[in-house]
Amino acid sequence: MGSTFRFIFAMILCCSLATMASAQSTALKYGDGQADGKQSLGGSGEMIEFAPPRESVRVGGLRIHGSRYGMPQAPDESFLIFFLSQDRKYILHTEMAPYSQFDRGPEKWVTISFGRPVELPEHFWVVLDFRATQRKGVYVSYDTSSGGKHSRIGLPGTPSLETKFGGDWMIELLPAKREAVR
Question: Of 53, 80, 138, 163, which residue is most buried, by most CB within 10 angstroms?
Fold first, then answer.
């Protein structure tokens, strides 16, 4: 009985690790994946541009490296995820996700899955708006190994600013799973 349980547990663990590795290897991202710092932006948002190697991309979710701060209980509200056109003038799509996805404490990867894939053009921006204050928000990590060519600070409809940390936000795009052909 004990060896059967260990075998089944080992199989489940291997399948889980393979699935996680597969999801991480197909993510669109910048940098080496090692956080070099973190920031929370009250009154603004984390912006990062993507230019996948295809005419369009179907996004199934995001991975964000960060942690929540504020009260022990997460606020009963959502943060906003905007997808903007290449020139940052148009909102192409908006998603919402609950603050409760993020824990307080050390920063870690958080996966945000969308209910339906988001179809996007070959060049676009992702903007996170946590509506952060001194009492609530999310520290989003950044990675300086990429040189910071893809990240800015701002929100839709406002001028964006360069980051001062010389890196890119640790935000990854997760492509939508391909539907099985029947």
Answer: 138
| Virtual torsion, Cα 157, 62, 161, 100, nearest 10 deg | 80
User: If residue 165 lies in a helix (H) or strand (E), which one and from where to where?
Assistant: none
pLDDT one-digit tens code per residue, 117-153: 999 999 999 999 999 999 999 999 999 999 999 999 9
Contact between 165 and 142 (Cβ < 8 Å):
yes
Whole-prediction pTM: 0.83
Write the DSSP symbol of residue 160: -
Contact 99, 132 (CB under 8 A): no
Task: Return d(Cα 162, Cα 158) in angstroms, integer.
Answer: 13
141: left (phi over 0), alpha (psi -120 to 50) or beta: beta
